[in-house]
Design brief:
Helix content: 25-40%
Mean pLDDT: 97
Pfam families: Lactamase_B (PF00753)
Number of domains: 1
Order of helices and strands: EEEHEHHEHEEEEEHEHEHE
Low-confidence stretches: none
CATH topology: Metallo-beta-lactamase, Chain A
Domain Metallo-beta-lactamase: 23-209
CATH architecture: 4-Layer Sandwich
CATH class: Alpha Beta
Distance between the termini: 11 Å
Largest sheet: 7 strands, mixed
Protein name: 7,8-dihydropterin-6-yl-methyl-4-(Beta-D-ribofuranosyl)aminobenzene 5'-phosphate synthase
Organism: Ectothiorhodospira mobilis
GO molecular function, one term: transferase activity
Length: 239
């Protein structure tokens, strides 16, 4: 069985030497027969440069999943579509109607997610749209062997997203990956979130992007070797 692999291609946290860091997040999810780009960071030139150094070709992508319409997650959109207009682009109803109309002309297939959990590919789902500020959805991975949730910024709350995904799957989500949006949270909120994820059955975390230094340190202390470094260039085997 091919282990799902996540390669962080854009992050404000450094990882591998020789890669550029800017504010934002993007990662390539490699699955059997499916290659998904999750978000595009804030700058297309830097995204493509990092992807090239990591051996990830935009032309090989099958799907582009955009979590929410903030600039630091959609900044590389044009650069990717220019090189691969054959993509399926997955967005949600909270994106600008003007952008949705333009995207229909720029990609092979535009999928606009509403409020329901939506299958996208074998073992890949959208959580459905959450009424956060801004509205956001996250990606659920269920290979049978492994369950994971990948989030851009977790504006609805990382525990809320994980809980909703677990309810949909009927079993715990073991991995929580991405920006947990705790950078402005106090210690009490960070510990509350940690406990909630533990109670939900999360065994492995990859807290990065907007998680914040204090929360990352707290997750490292709580999860030990099961807290995996994010940062640009990190390759995570989701096993």
């Amino acid at each position: 069985m091919h282990t799902p692999r996540l390669t962080v291609c854009f992050d404000n946290y450094p990882g591998e030497p020789g890669l550029r860091t800017l504010w934002g997040f993007a990662a390539v999810l490699d699955l059997p027969g499916q290659k998904i780009l999750f978000d595009t960071g804030s700058n297309g030139r830097i995204l493509l440069e990092n992807m090239d150094r990591l051996g990830q070709r935009p032309e090989d992508l099958d799907m582009l999943f955009l979590s929410h319409p903030h600039w630091d997650h959609i900044g590389g959109l044009d650069s990717v579509l220019e090189l691969n207009p054959r993509l399926q682009v997955v967005v949600h109803e909270g994106f600008s109607k003007h952008l949705l109309r333009d995207l229909e002309e720029m990609c092979a297939q535009l999928t606009v997610i509403g409020r329901d959990v939506t299958p996208l590919a074998p073992g890949v789902f959208s959580t459905g749209l959450f009424d956060s500020d801004p509205p956001e959805h996250a990606l659920i991975l269920d290979t049978g062997d492994v369950t994971a949730l990948i989030t851009g910024c977790a504006h609805p709350g990382i525990d809320t997203l994980v809980g909703a995904a677990a309810q949909r799957l009927g079993r715990p989500v073991r991995w929580a990956i991405g920006g947990f949006h705790l950078m402005y949270s106090d210690e009490a909120k960070i510990q509350q979130t940690l406990r909630a994820l533990r109670d939900l059955g999360v065994t492995d975390v990859v807290p990065t992007h907007c998680t914040g230094d204090a929360a990352r340190a707290a997750f490292q202390e709580a999860y030990g070797p099961h807290c995996h470094d994010g940062g640009v260039g990190q390759v995570i085997e989701i096993a």
